[in-house]
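Dear support,

We are seeing what looks like truncated structure output for some complexes. This example has two components. We would appreciate it if you could run it in full and send us the complete token output so we can diff it against ours.
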Amino acid sequence: QVQLVESGGGVVQPGGSLRLSCAASGFTFSSYGMHWVRQAPGKGLEWVAFIRYDGSNKYYADSVKGRFTISRDNSKNTLYLQMNSLRAEDTAVYYCAKDHGIVLALDYWGQGTLVTVSS
Amino acid sequence: QSVLTQPPSVSAAPGQKVTISCSGSSSNIGNNYVSWYQQLPGTAPKLLIYDNNKRPSGIPDRFSGSKSGTSATLGITGLQTGDEADYYCGTWDSSLSALVFGGGTKLTVL
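Here is the complete output from our reference environment:
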């Protein structure tokens, strides 16, 4: 069965950096695009970034462009999100999600990892 | 302010039917596939509908999706207390080159 397990969350000061990881299993990771989606406390879903199956194309929300970098290591079945210049408004639960592959839809989600940006 | 507009809340009695709307524009819903997600309290979102009206395996046929022009609708029949959750629509926005979600709709089963 598909499993996505995020890690790397924690408390970081404004202006700091953090790298999130998402370990994937139960499917051919190298054949699917992957997303990061976040949810601030008590708020709705906000898409963060998408990377194609081979890493050839990456897309970002305007709110994180230039500060966050999505990447993947298909040999390790792992997705990453490098987050720099963190702000208080980046505080959220960060989910990784698998793309459906045929149409744009997020068909499996991890349990999420909490990132708190605070001094 | 979300690119896709959903009602903040809807409610209905057990056994009844409810619909949740999602309004967008030609740059998103009008020219791209819509998906719907259910988020039960304290859990990760789950895909309910993709490609406007298709259900992943394991999703009961009480859940349905439709799209017309720049709007989409999620329908839920035979409401159960276990359906109480937040529901989100999502699609690609070609102008933004970004995936966009609606603001979410909280369903209460009275």
